[in-house]
């Protein structure tokens, strides 16, 4: 029975004949597991450090390994043999040998990172990046350009980002031949047509990469590129297959035509944003990216066909390996696909040689190889999710499966002759796994998800405590085991739990394999028979349609997403909860009490939840978040989307407000001026959200705050633009127009530098069908009167300037003529905001005053053809 999971969506079959070997197989895997984890940890720690630090760690580890070997009286050759072959021996090796292997792997991983960092930090590309030099360069693309954002106004060009190899760089008449990885940012639709392996000539400015990124530089391309060489034949064929699938999917509804290419070959260029949001909230986001599940399904289908035609076991394994390699080329070898591919190739080798039980050892060997040769994976959340899910399936799923259902009685051990008349069993699941294999998946928006391909692993027999059918037990054990394994990584990554993910993945499981196989078949057929491809896409559409339906249903369930502290504190809390819960649930007497208490708590929350769920009000147009002493506003931009104007002082508070509103996509972020109470919460907006572009004030007086903002945006690779009067955007129901500042106003002084910065605030007029609001930043008297002279001011609502300070122009407030004034202010602040004189002025001019320190969040809604303000609190 195929099963799936957010990070382990492949089908799994546990071979009962191997269950008695599970403990031994896991014991023998430790000589690889411990060194692999240690190498991973060392690479994770040292990325972002200097090359010197890495070499110091490498040398110290090598010296420690020498000391251990000398102490044990081991020669190098003997120690190496003991480490590498111990997992195949009938007895686990002594921990001394594992320690030696661990130190050797730490030294190797540290040296690998050090050499990479040194190579990237020296040379012409790095030197030019430090000077932000304008260069002419020749680059070779190493992946498909990915679209970043598409907005309005001055941002109407499509932005693309792609990894590339810098081959030649020229500046001021001097050319340097190099070969280093870089990240390219460019605008223009032409970039969507380029393929990996193409060589381009571009002009642009080099910039230093984000710390921790193992690239030599960032290249900001200016102007159109010039094609020097076409893509290779292999990439041309792969690009043709991807384009053919996109064209064939045009016959499907919009939500399905974007998901099918994403599910099959990882092409999300036409993914509906709402569908992507639903998949993420339901724990199904792995389905819009290529994963180990795809490789497992393709390999499984290849094995089934080759078995039907009577090929021998080694030939079957060879064809499965070829199919996985071909699929990886078409889907692009992303880090997660590389990990899945190596696992799948290991499974094929195990199948061909009759050793299909060493899944955990193969996983550890794969991790070790990838960390040594691609150390940048050590910091990939997708890679971590992939490895954790696969390990959970190999270690936990067999136990839980056998406790739910008695072990299947058979003797079809791979590599052993079968009784006469009995069908030969290969130890491979229909999804391509071997033995106790499974696959795992996830992505990472780091935009993501990790994934794993199937590989054989031993299962263990336990006394069954249930009477579930075997296929049901397998279907439940796999996603639950994978979900448990990836939960710590998800907490670190997103600060939330998704309990609905297991149910959602169980429901979509039957649709994943048909959609993948039919979609891949359509991709293969499309270049020679487009109409035939459409015939295959139509039934695939029913499968992806079911996936979309399940996702939409799941996200509307109560507690689809549970907030949880993020980072290390959240992980620590999770460890404490598990440490307390496991002993309780293992005791039969306490189990009933715990379940009863949990049920009572669930009922209580279900009763309370409808009351709390009244926020935000339906159809909200704008929300002024209660961020304390500061500004943080969200303008509705469509389902799950919002334009953010200022971020308040606290990232956590701002993030919580956006979570309450369900905002996951921020097409535009406007930072009115560089004061901490307006930009300090920027990391909270960026947390697990896509931000299309950021608009900032032209005022640079507060260089420290402005530089911090610019550095943060550069780290996230988000374009930064300077506000200009007349610039406008339309997002969903909202139309935004910049009214100020102009360059003269941005230099206007008031009472010191603080006033100069306040007077340079970006002023935005937001219009809806039923009314408008003027967002006035922290303008003070001088800038208010200057704006009044330049622009006709009229709005239904006013965001009171500068938190209601005493520096207000009565003429300005009267000209706006707002019926209601919203003031974002912190309770008991030291500035005396809002001033009593300002409150009296607003009321005298007929405006109803709403304050966040009194009422919490304030929502603007349409009511009776006009505008109304709805407070969250009393």
TrEMBL record:
<feature type="domain" description="Metallo-beta-lactamase">
    <location>
        <begin position="629"/>
        <end position="827"/>
    </location>
</feature>
<dbReference type="InterPro" id="IPR036866">
    <property type="entry name" value="RibonucZ/Hydroxyglut_hydro"/>
</dbReference>
<feature type="transmembrane region" description="Helical">
    <location>
        <begin position="536"/>
        <end position="555"/>
    </location>
</feature>
<keyword id="KW-0812">Transmembrane</keyword>
<feature type="transmembrane region" description="Helical">
    <location>
        <begin position="471"/>
        <end position="494"/>
    </location>
</feature>
<keyword id="KW-1133">Transmembrane helix</keyword>
<feature type="compositionally biased region" description="Basic and acidic residues">
    <location>
        <begin position="404"/>
        <end position="413"/>
    </location>
</feature>
<dbReference type="Pfam" id="PF00753">
    <property type="entry name" value="Lactamase_B"/>
</dbReference>
<feature type="transmembrane region" description="Helical">
    <location>
        <begin position="94"/>
        <end position="115"/>
    </location>
</feature>
<feature type="transmembrane region" description="Helical">
    <location>
        <begin position="29"/>
        <end position="49"/>
    </location>
</feature>
<feature type="transmembrane region" description="Helical">
    <location>
        <begin position="567"/>
        <end position="585"/>
    </location>
</feature>
<feature type="transmembrane region" description="Helical">
    <location>
        <begin position="313"/>
        <end position="330"/>
    </location>
</feature>
<feature type="region of interest" description="Disordered">
    <location>
        <begin position="404"/>
        <end position="434"/>
    </location>
</feature>
<keyword id="KW-0472">Membrane</keyword>
<dbReference type="GO" id="GO:0005886">
    <property type="term" value="C:plasma membrane"/>
</dbReference>
<dbReference type="InterPro" id="IPR052159">
    <property type="entry name" value="Competence_DNA_uptake"/>
</dbReference>
<feature type="transmembrane region" description="Helical">
    <location>
        <begin position="359"/>
        <end position="375"/>
    </location>
</feature>
<feature type="transmembrane region" description="Helical">
    <location>
        <begin position="381"/>
        <end position="398"/>
    </location>
</feature>
<protein>
    <submittedName>
        <fullName>MBL fold metallo-hydrolase</fullName>
    </submittedName>
</protein>
<feature type="transmembrane region" description="Helical">
    <location>
        <begin position="506"/>
        <end position="529"/>
    </location>
</feature>
<keyword id="KW-1003">Cell membrane</keyword>
<feature type="transmembrane region" description="Helical">
    <location>
        <begin position="56"/>
        <end position="74"/>
    </location>
</feature>
<feature type="transmembrane region" description="Helical">
    <location>
        <begin position="336"/>
        <end position="352"/>
    </location>
</feature>
<feature type="transmembrane region" description="Helical">
    <location>
        <begin position="592"/>
        <end position="615"/>
    </location>
</feature>
<dbReference type="InterPro" id="IPR004477">
    <property type="entry name" value="ComEC_N"/>
</dbReference>
<dbReference type="InterPro" id="IPR001279">
    <property type="entry name" value="Metallo-B-lactamas"/>
</dbReference>
<dbReference type="GO" id="GO:0016787">
    <property type="term" value="F:hydrolase activity"/>
</dbReference>
<keyword id="KW-0378">Hydrolase</keyword>
<dbReference type="InterPro" id="IPR035681">
    <property type="entry name" value="ComA-like_MBL"/>
</dbReference>
<dbReference type="Pfam" id="PF03772">
    <property type="entry name" value="Competence"/>
</dbReference>
């Amino acid at each position: 029975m195929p099963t799936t999971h957010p990070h382990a969506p492949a089908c799994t079959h546990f071979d009962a004949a191997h269950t008695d070997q599970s403990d031994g197989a896991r014991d023998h895997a430790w000589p690889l597991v411990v060194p692999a984890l240690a190498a991973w940890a060392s690479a994770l720690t040292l990325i972002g450090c200097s090359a010197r630090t890495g070499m110091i760690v490498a040398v110290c580890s090598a010296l420690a390994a020498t000391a251990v070997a000398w102490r044990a009286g081991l020669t190098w050759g003997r120690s190496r043999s003991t480490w590498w072959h111990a997992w195949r021996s009938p007895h686990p090796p002594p921990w001394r040998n594992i320690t030696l292997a661990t130190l050797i792997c730490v030294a190797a991983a540290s040296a690998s990172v050090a050499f990479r960092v040194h190579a990237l930090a020296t040379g012409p590309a790095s030197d030019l990046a430090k000077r932000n030099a304008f260069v002419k360069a020749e680059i070779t693309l190493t992946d498909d350009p990915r679209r970043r954002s598409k907005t309005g106004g001055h941002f109407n060009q499509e932005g693309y980002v792609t990894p590339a190899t810098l081959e030649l760089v020229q500046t001021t008449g001097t050319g340097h031949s190099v070969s280093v990885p870089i990240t390219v940012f460019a605008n223009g639709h032409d970039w969507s047509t380029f393929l990996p392996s193409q060589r381009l000539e571009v002009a642009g400015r080099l910039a230093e990469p984000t710390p921790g990124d193992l690239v030599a530089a960032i290249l900001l391309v200016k102007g159109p590129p010039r094609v020097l060489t076409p893509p290779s034949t292999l990439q041309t064929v792969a690009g043709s297959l991807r384009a053919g699938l996109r064209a064939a999917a045009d016959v499907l509804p919009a939500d399905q035509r974007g998901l099918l290419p994403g599910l099959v070959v990882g092409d999300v260029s036409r993914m509906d944003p709402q569908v992507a949001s639903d998949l993420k909230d339901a724990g199904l986001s792995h389905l819009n990216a290529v994963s180990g599940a795809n490789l497992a399904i393709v390999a499984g289908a290849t094995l089934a066909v080759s078995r039907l035609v009577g090929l021998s076991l080694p030939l079957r394994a060879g064809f499965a390996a070829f199919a996985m390699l071909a699929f990886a080329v078409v889907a692009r070898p992303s880090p997660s696909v590389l990990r899945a591919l190596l696992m799948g190739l290991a499974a094929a080798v195990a199948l061909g040689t009759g050793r299909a039980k060493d899944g955990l050892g193969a996983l550890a060997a794969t991790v070790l190889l990838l960390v040594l040769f691609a150390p940048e994976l050590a910091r990939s959340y997708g890679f971590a999710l992939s490895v954790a899910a696969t390990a959970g399936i190999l270690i936990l799923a067999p136990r839980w499966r056998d406790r739910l259902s008695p072990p299947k009685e058979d003797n079809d051990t791979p590599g052993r002759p079968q009784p006469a008349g009995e069908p030969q069993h290969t130890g491979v699941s229909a999804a391509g796994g071997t033995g106790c294999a499974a696959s795992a998946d996830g992505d990472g928006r780091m935009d993501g998800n990790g994934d794993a391909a199937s590989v054989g692993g031993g299962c263990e027999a336990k006394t069954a405590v249930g009477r579930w059918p075997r296929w049901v037990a397998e279907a439940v054990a796999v996603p639950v085991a994978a979900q448990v394994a990836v939960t710590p990584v998800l907490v670190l990554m997103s600060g939330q739990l998704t309990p609905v993910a297991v149910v959602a993945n169980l429901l979509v499981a039957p649709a994943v394999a048909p959609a993948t196989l039919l979609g891949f078949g359509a991709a293969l057929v499309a270049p020679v028979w487009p109409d035939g491809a459409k015939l295959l896409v139509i039934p695939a559409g029913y499968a992806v349609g079911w996936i979309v339906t399940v996702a939409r249903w799941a996200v509307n369930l109560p507690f689809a997403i549970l907030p949880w502290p993020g980072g290390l504190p959240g992980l620590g809390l999770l460890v404490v909860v598990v440490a307390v819960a496991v002993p309780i649930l293992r005791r039969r007497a306490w189990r009933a009490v715990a379940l009863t208490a949990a049920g009572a708590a669930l009922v209580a929350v279900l009763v309370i939840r409808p009351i709390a769920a009244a926020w935000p009000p339906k159809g909200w147009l704008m929300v002024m978040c209660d961020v304390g002493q500061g500004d943080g506003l969200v303008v509705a931009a469509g389902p799950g989307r919002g334009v953010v104007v200022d971020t308040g002082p606290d990232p956590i508070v701002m993030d919580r407000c956006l979570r309450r509103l369900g905002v996951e996509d921020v097409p535009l972020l406007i930072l009115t001026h560089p004061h901490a109470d307006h930009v300090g919460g920027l990391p909270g907006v960026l947390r697990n959200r896509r931000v299309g572009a950021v608009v900032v004030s032209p005022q640079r007086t507060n260089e420290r705050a402005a530089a911090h903002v610019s550095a943060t945006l550069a780290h996230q690779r988000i374009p930064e633009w300077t506000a200009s009067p007349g610039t406008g955007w339309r997002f969903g129901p909202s139309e935004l127009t910049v009214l100020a500042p102009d360059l003269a106003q941005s230099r206007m002084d008031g009472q010191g530098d603080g006033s100069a910065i306040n007077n340079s605030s970006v002023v935005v007029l937001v219009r809806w069908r039923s009314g408008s609001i003027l967002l006035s930043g922290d303008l003070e008297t001088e800038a208010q009167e200057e704006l009044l002279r330049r622009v006709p001011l009229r709005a239904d609502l006013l965001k009171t300037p500068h938190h209601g300070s005493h520096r207000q122009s009565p003429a300005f407030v009267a000209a706006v003529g707002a019926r209601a004034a919203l003031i974002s202010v912190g309770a008991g602040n030291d500035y005396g905001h809002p001033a009593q004189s300002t409150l009296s002025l607003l009321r005298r001019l007929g405006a109803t005053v709403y304050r966040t320190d009194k009422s919490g969040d304030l929502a603007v809604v349409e009511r009776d053809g006009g505008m109304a303000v709805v407070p969250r609190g009393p």
